[in-house]
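TICKET #2291
ISSUE: user wants both folds in one file
ATTACHMENT 1:
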Amino acid sequence: GFLGKMLFSGEEALKKCTVLSGGEKVRCMLSRMMMLRANVLMLDEPTNHLDLESITAFNNSLKNFKGTVLFTTHDHQFAQTVADRIVELTPRQTIDRYLSFDDYMSDKSIRELREKMYAVPA
């Protein structure tokens, strides 16, 4: 069932790990994590190597995940879909806000704070 959620069907679910593509390996590992019922997931660029259909299935699974998901990503749509809290580590301090990614990026007060945190001292 978990493999099915990550778009493996029929014979595909019986493949040996050594013959899986990069995207299939990621989908298999994500299925394993869901099966273990973890309450915290730490993901580094989780949508790399996934096609659009796999990313959509993964996003839908994460929206229903009851635990905490900590992730890094360059995928704007993934961040906007999954994140409800943004924690940014700057050279001077941490900025921590309960906002969607788009709201965080467009907030004027946060933009001003970021400029101060990244400013090079004269």
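ATTACHMENT 2:
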Amino acid sequence: MFNFNRIVAVVEDDESVRRALKRLLQSFAVEAETFPSGEAFLSALSSGVSCRPACVIVDFQMPGIDGLELQRRLAPTGVPIIFMTGHDDPAVRKKAFARGAAGYLKKPLDGDALIRAVKKALQLPVLP
């Protein structure tokens, strides 16, 4: 277990996946805010309703603003982005990492891999 006071934003269009990720993160003492779309996340950021997250976990394929577009819009902030996808495409993965992705995970997610990716993105010690 690790403990820190940083918020991780989860941007995922599937409500059950959002809930599961929030529970998983909270079980490791990670505060999480969830958003049903890229638009909702960007709106919260621009309105000041939400504080700037330390890391964003984003579903790659979503209606409206997809993961790569969200990454492009967040690039100036330097916030680490971890992608998750059910449709792994090597060209997309390459593009995401070329643009600075902190991680790229396939669904169904492995909880341990997700926590390792979050720790790495937040520059916390990662245990084997």
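RESOLUTION: both attachments delivered.
EXTRA DETAIL ON ATTACHMENT 2: Residues 7-119 form a domain with the Rossmann fold fold (CATH 3.40.50.2300).
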